[in-house]
Queue: 2 jobs
Job 1
Amino acid sequence: MTKRLAEMVLLLGFLGIGMTLGLAFLKAPSVSINAFESPDAQRIFYWHVPAAWAAFIAFGILFLGSALWFFKRSDLGWKMHVAGAEAGLATGLMTVWSGMVWGSAEWGVPWDWTDVRLNTFGLLTFLALFLVLGRQSQPDGVETRDTFSTFGLFGFVLVPITYVATRLWQIRHPGPVIGGGESGSLNSEMALILLLGAISFTVFIIGHVLMSMRITSLEQRLESIQEAMDKV
């Protein structure tokens, strides 16, 4: 049972995410035509916001794992670093993709290079891509881990900047829904679907991290066996 925990949690997250998207298109109430240029496009909001929420969790795991490895030389910390980077890339791409779909319909352009939040979140996703591809292209070792952990530590500063960006420089992206004082504008049905999305993406992140950490452990065991065989 415990051996399949990661798969079960990940599957549960996928099911919840799919249900959220289905409810967003079939059940969520329409919004006022005066509130959005493209009211139907706002339905991607129920995917976009929870995906961004999950991405922040993933980058938090990345930061914690980077700190544990860099300062404590914790093998668990390195596994968390790897898992956080991979989960951050997955949810970051989901957020960017859904945001561009919404932006194309609502703003007429998929991306605004003058908007601070869009660009800082884009940099976060690019950081995750760099860490994932970099680890796969470089031999594992202390120096490699130190280098990537440093990027994980300093890159995390983009998370609070991204969160408060629309409060300080609201150019095109709307202000934060979670913790931003705008949640009261959602009726109960909209709020329930958004909550389902947030829970589902959180479960997805947990399953993704558990799976990634297990895969990293297996990779390390395989490398140890290979090194032992080479010595023989």
Job 2
Amino acid sequence: MILEHRIQTMFASLLVFAAMGCATSEPKPAQESKFYKSVAVRRCLQFEKETKVNEAQACWADLLRRLEDSPNFRTKAELSDSDVAKIRQKAGQSQQKAHKMNRELQACFNLPSRPRQQRIDCFEKYLAAHKDELKQSERYEIKNAIASTRAAEKKASGSIEATMEHAGKLLGADLHTEDGGLRVDAVHGGPMAQAQCPAQGMIVLIDDLQVTEMDVAEIISRLEACQEKPVTLTIRHGGLKEVSFHRITCSCGKQASGKRQWRILMPAEACSEEDSPELTLGIEWCYEAAAGMLHVESVCAGSPAAEAGIRPGHEYTHIGDKLILGKSLLQIRALLEQTPIQFVEKGGSLRSPQALDGKLMDKAAKSKCWQAIQDLDKGTNKTPL
């Protein structure tokens, strides 16, 4: 009995000791965040450290896409919920910064052609403010824009001889200015012929800048720049039932050459349909391809578009800093996938007081919106959209 009692006492003591050991042992450390250890994250952070704004924005956006499109990526990278939230925050901040820079630059391009010094001052101020944030190629493009503007000033003052006829000879075409752009009356060899550009078209964009926003001297200056670097032209044909756009690149001088980048063909006017992506924003619109214009027909009440201040009758020429002219419906739909979305009115002033933050209507709300639009068209809708 005594032995049995001693064994029981010893066993109880061991249990108490074990319990005390469990109570006093150090807790396991929480899993260390992998945010700063991820190779993909470090790459984006390095772009931020080097103040490369556009590269950082593209990097965070790509990382976000990988998280959304590849479910295994998050597990493989061992990223926690807080890590993912931090990546989303970084992506949003980076996108806002890139958009802000792009809007500043677009504002310089949108300044009136005269006085030219105002545009030059704007470019130079932009370069000074963002010299460390721009890639070498971006700085080169802005410096080239400054040089082209200065050359246009000299040609307008008569200190440099230049004519539209000379610019046409370099490109291999007969060119004449009109209200809607620069008419291509004939193509007779040279870079434009090599690029398979048909005659009787209208050059509407030179290096993605609207011809209608330039005076003759600046048009000539930009065309003649083909002797120093390739010039990109977007040329419109048709306009009654169908519109086509040719995008070509031309180099002049000793290394003269021309290449077609792409050609798109679309209806002169295309309006929203039941499965159109703009309906998820609550918008019905018609796209006038020749003018590069989105005309808002209807806006559904309570929709993201209505909350942003978009109203029927608004006419938009830009989505964000991207000009719509010369773009296909597919390209416009791709622009709608970028957030936040900001539409720019014809004439350059913002017409939607708030940017659309990417919130879309669900399938039921979209269907209800479409039905309201149909009822309105039929005259059966008695309430405003």
